[in-house]
């Protein structure tokens, strides 16, 4: 089936985010925008993770849906024409700040996980490197390679996707604190970087002229800090509606991208 997915958002636990960006409002706004799959955002924050565990339930397809009581309370705010199938996928964003090759690096990454219980294990391991409770997008004093090692030890189904790759600050290709190529950043782990996020100010067609991105999937997302910004950029998938199908589509580039 074809569906729209927005995989990079934030919650009220992130700095400079709207206070009303909770699970219920995300559900309503997503259906109004025509989204079928939405990243949860900010799953590294303990408060956000508790909210997700309280309000969502794991479906048999590896994605999450609203518990029936909560879903029913939201339905009155959604026009009949906008109602339909909807799922959440566990996501978060982290900021790694560290020194490498004599330069301070500041890298943002999107994380996808197949299970919130596994996210809890991740949070237990990374909290020693930063204050995960202070921001929905935590700053970790840790090489992004070491973060990726931790992630893959917990689940080989998880994904790390470099975020908004051309942003001058806080991105893998950023002119201020990034790298010249993916290999320089991830070394032997470069083979596991299956996708990158273009970013709001980036042109995907121009990205395709960069040879370092050959054989890697390009995705674009809203990076929303309020419900109204959901879906301003999103991805069209033509797959089964499951965690496995969504991640494998990015691994093998078997999907379509809409900007």
Account of the 3D structure:
The protein has 259 residues and is an alpha/beta fold. It has a single domain, classed as Alpha-Beta Barrel (TIM Barrel), CATH 3.20.20.140. 27% of the residues lie in helices and 22% in strands. The chain has eight helices and 13 strands. It has helices at 23-33, 46-55, 68-75, 116-126, 144-154, 182-186, 204-207, 243-252, and strands at 2-6, 37-39, 56-58, 64-66, 87-89, 91-100, 103-112, 139-140, 159-162, 195-197, 217-219, 234-238, 256-258. Strands 5-2-1-12-13 form a five-stranded mixed beta sheet, sandwiched between helices. A hairpin with a 2-residue loop joins β6 and β7 (103-112). α1 packs across α3 (68-75), α2 runs antiparallel to α4 and α4 (116-126) packs antiparallel against α5 (144-154). The longest helix has 11 residues, at 23-33. It is globular. 44% of the residues are buried. The mean pLDDT is 96.
């Amino acid at each position: 089936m074809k569906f729209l997915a927005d995989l990079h958002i934030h919650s009220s636990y992130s700095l400079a985010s709207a206070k009303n960006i909770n699970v219920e409002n995300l559900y309503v706004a997503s259906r109004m925008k025509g989204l079928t799959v939405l990243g949860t955002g900010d799953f590294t924050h303990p408060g956000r993770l508790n909210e997700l565990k309280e309000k969502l339930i794991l479906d048999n397809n590896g994605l999450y849906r609203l518990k029936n009581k909560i879903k029913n309370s939201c339905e009155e705010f959604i026009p009949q024409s906008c109602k339909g199938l909807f799922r959440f996928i566990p996501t978060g964003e982290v900021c790694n700040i560290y020194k490498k090759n004599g330069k301070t690096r500041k890298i943002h990454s999107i994380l996808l996980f197949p299970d919130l219980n596994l996210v809890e294990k991740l949070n237990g391991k990374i909290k020693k490197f930063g204050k995960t409770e202070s921001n929905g997008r935590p700053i970790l004093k840790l090489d992004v390679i070491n973060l990726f090692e931790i992630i893959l030890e917990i689940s080989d189904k998880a994904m790390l996707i470099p975020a908004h790759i051309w942003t001058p600050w806080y991105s893998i290709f950023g002119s201020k604190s990034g790298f010249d190529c993916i290999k320089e950043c991830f070394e032997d782990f470069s083979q596991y970087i299956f996708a990158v996020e273009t970013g709001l100010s980036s042109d995907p067609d121009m990205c395709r002229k960069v040879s370092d991105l050959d054989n890697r999937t390009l995705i674009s997302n809203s990076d929303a800090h309020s419900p109204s910004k959901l879906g301003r950029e999103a991805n069209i998938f033509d797959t089964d509606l499951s965690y496995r199908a969504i991640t494998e589509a990015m691994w093998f580039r078997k999907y379509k991208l809409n900007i």
